[in-house]
């Protein structure tokens, strides 16, 4: 059953403090009056009743001193009376409430959860290492105290569970057929992680402010192989870009020659020129020119 938070206003501590300071003087005057009356008129039943009342007032004054407490900014006190939730005091400063209230202080400040690196399989089954940093705060003190055993431990466990589930829903890298990946879609993954954690910790009255990946890498057993794969993909992508640019330059050169009519080239000479230009433009080493003393036909 979900517990609803009720914000209550309790007494300021300064007024109660002045009453607590004045009370001993009044009690001392009362005791003096009882003793003086007993000496003058003799001890009687009235004086016995006065001593009993005085003792009860002293005990009550001592108990009331336990009602003082202080709250720092962004701090609250959950008030419980003999196992029954009374309400939550969120007013900072010097406070006084029923001394029989159990006062459970709960911080409302933002907290950081720096998760340990865990090993999990991504969407493709590759073992990866992943960790995250979660920024959270208590939004509902009643749910945080009464609906879960330990809200801090609850947030830690549920955040790790959400991170594992998220890592299994995305591939580590984008290989062309996935719209999102852990490495390439940082903002989308962070938003998904924040929503996943928030859904899990709602029961604890916790608000997730931010969730970001702090560590992401392939597991050691496949890191070297995946590095070679990334290097190979980078080389293939670079060579494809070079070939695309070279073909465009060759087309531009042939078109320019035809427009200016600098030289007339038949199909065989065009093929030879294209071949030479592609070798020069796509080659990884510097080209070494060769002087041709003949023709293509002899």
Task: Give structural attributes.
alpha+beta; Tetrahydropterin Synthase, Chain A; 3 domains; 4-stranded antiparallel β-sheet; 21% strand; 7 helices; single chain; 298 residues
Alpha-carbon Rg, integer = 40 Å
Oligomerization state: single chain
β-sheet strand percentage? 15-25%
Largest sheet: 4 strands, antiparallel
What coarse outline follows from CA principal-axis ratios? rod-shaped
What's a quick, concise take on this entry?
With 298 residues, the chain is of the alpha+beta class. The chain is built from 7 helices and 10 strands. The chain has helices at residues 13-41, 45-64, 141-146, 151-167, 186-201, 220-260, 267-282; strands spanning 11-12, 68-71, 75-81, 84-89, 93-96, 102-107, 111-114, 118-121, 127-138, 206-218.
Description:
There is one protein chain. This protein has 298 residues and is of the alpha+beta class. It has three domains: 11-106, no CATH class; 111-218, Tetrahydropterin Synthase, Chain A (2-Layer Sandwich); 223-282. Helix content is 49%, strand content 21%. The chain contains seven helices and ten strands. The strands form three sheets. Strands 7, 8, 9 and 10 form a four-stranded antiparallel β-sheet that branches. It has a three-stranded antiparallel β-sheet with strand order 1-5-2, covered by helices on one side. A three-stranded antiparallel β-sheet has the order 4-3-6. A hairpin with a 2-residue loop joins strand 3 (75-81) and strand 4 (84-89). Helix 4 (151-167) crosses helix 5 and helix 6 (220-260) packs antiparallel against helix 7 (267-282). The longest helix is centred in the C-terminal third of the chain and has 41 residues, at 220-260. The mean pLDDT is 81.
């Amino acid at each position: 059953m979900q517990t609803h938070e009720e914000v209550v206003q309790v007494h300021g501590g300064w007024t109660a403090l002045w009453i607590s300071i004045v009370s001993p003087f009044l009690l001392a005057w009362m005791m003096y009056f009882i003793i003086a009356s007993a000496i003058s008129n003799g001890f009687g039943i009235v004086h016995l009743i006065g001593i009993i009342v005085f003792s009860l007032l002293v005990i009550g004054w001592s108990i009331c001193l336990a009602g003082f407490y202080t709250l720092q900014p962004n701090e609250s006190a959950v008030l419980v009376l003999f196992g029954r939730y009374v309400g939550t005091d969120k007013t900072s400063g010097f406070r006084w409430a029923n001394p029989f209230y159990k006062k459970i202080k709960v911080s409302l400040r933002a907290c950081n959860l720096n998760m340990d690196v865990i090993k999990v399989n991504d969407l493709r089954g590759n073992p990866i290492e992943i960790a995250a940093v979660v920024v959270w705060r208590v939004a509902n003190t009643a749910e945080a105290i009464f609906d879960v055993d330990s809200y801090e431990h609850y947030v830690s466990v549920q955040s790790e569970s959400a991170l594992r589930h998220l890592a299994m829903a995305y591939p580590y890298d984008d290989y062309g057929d996935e719209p999102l990946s852990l490495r390439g879609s940082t903002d989308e993954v962070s938003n998904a992680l924040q929503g996943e954690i928030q859904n899990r910790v709602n029961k604890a009255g916790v608000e997730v402010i931010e969730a970001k990946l702090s560590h992401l890498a392939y597991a050691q057993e496949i890191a070297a192989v995946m590095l070679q794969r990334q290097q190979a993909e980078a080389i293939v992508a670079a060579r494809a870009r070079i070939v695309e640019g070279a073909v465009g330059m060759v087309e531009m050169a042939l078109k320019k020659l035809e427009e200016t009519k600098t030289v007339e080239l038949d199909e065989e000479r065009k093929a030879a020129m294209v071949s030479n230009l592609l070798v020069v433009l796509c080659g990884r080493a510097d080209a070494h020119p060769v002087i041709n003393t003949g023709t293509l036909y002899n």
